[in-house]
Amino acid sequence: MKAFNFITPYRVEKPRKNGITMMLDKGMGLRVLEDLMEVSGEYIDFAKLGWGTSALHDRELIQNKAEMYLSYDVNPYPGGTLFELAYMKNKFSEFLDESDKLGFTAIEISDGSTIISPEERRNIISKTKERGFTVISEVGKKNPQDDCKLDTEDRVKLINSDINAGSDRILIEAREGGKGIGIYDECGNIKEDELEILAKTNMEKIIWEAPLKNQQTDLILKFGPNVNLGNIAPEEVTSLETLRRGLRGDTLGKLDI
Ligand SMILES: C=C(OP(=O)(O)O)C(=O)O
Ligand SMILES: O=S([O-])[O-]
């Protein structure tokens, strides 16, 4: 039983469709991960082993980490950048084979640093789906100068086309920093117009990358405790859960929970 259970607001439990939290794992060791899972595993739905970090560790460690995540019902997956590298090297099917063998259950398809034609993107999404992975496709470019060339209409088109091709979730790029990219301005504040338009596409499927606390708070206040959020730092997972439940001043008494 949880401490103070008589005042803690309830939130939908896993497996959940909404209120998804995606955590960014930047190369944690197994013991740190075990500790984290023990205290926060129930608040995490997906764990992304950021960009190419999983390629720097022994296969056995990655397998053990994936197993640990799965034992807490957390879906582990490799960073979109690693997929992009595999794609550039013409090793997409080997990438899926290896991901499967390592125990990853989801795959991120992104073009943050590469160029992939819309047709190719749709093919890749459906092939990944056919292989039995949960598909998370990302919309946005890593370089702010390239990202700002994508207007809102382009993003809406991409979201809809990815969903039609079979994506389970659409990730809105904000990187680890969360500034000057996607729905955020240079200070990391939300660009309301952009947010409103993207939110009209399919809120259930969208995961907003929101690495900063002000972003998490604003999105929770706007869309409620069960908004899907990603790129959450491991040490911020419990903190985010308090925001979702009104257990922190920023949202206390302000949520319908
Ligand atoms: C962390 C990110 O990069 P990657 O998907 O390459 O891990 C991201 O896109 O937010
Ligand atoms: O490389 S990152 O921060 O998406």
Automatic annotation (TrEMBL):
GO terms of molecular function: phosphosulfolactate synthase activity
Gene Ontology annotations of biological process type: coenzyme M biosynthetic process
Family annotation (InterPro entries): Aldolase_TIM, Arch_ComA, ComA_synth, ComA_synth_sf
Key words of the record: Lyase
Lineage of the organism: Archaea, Methanobacteriati, Methanobacteriota, Methanomada group, Methanobacteria
Similarity comment: family membership: Belongs to the phosphosulfolactate synthase family.
E.C. code: 4.4.1.19
Coiled-coil residue windows: none
Family matches, as Pfam families: ComA (PF02679)
Native species: Methanobacterium veterum
Keyword Ligase: no
Name assigned to this protein: Phosphosulfolactate synthase
Gene3D superfamilies: Aldolase class I
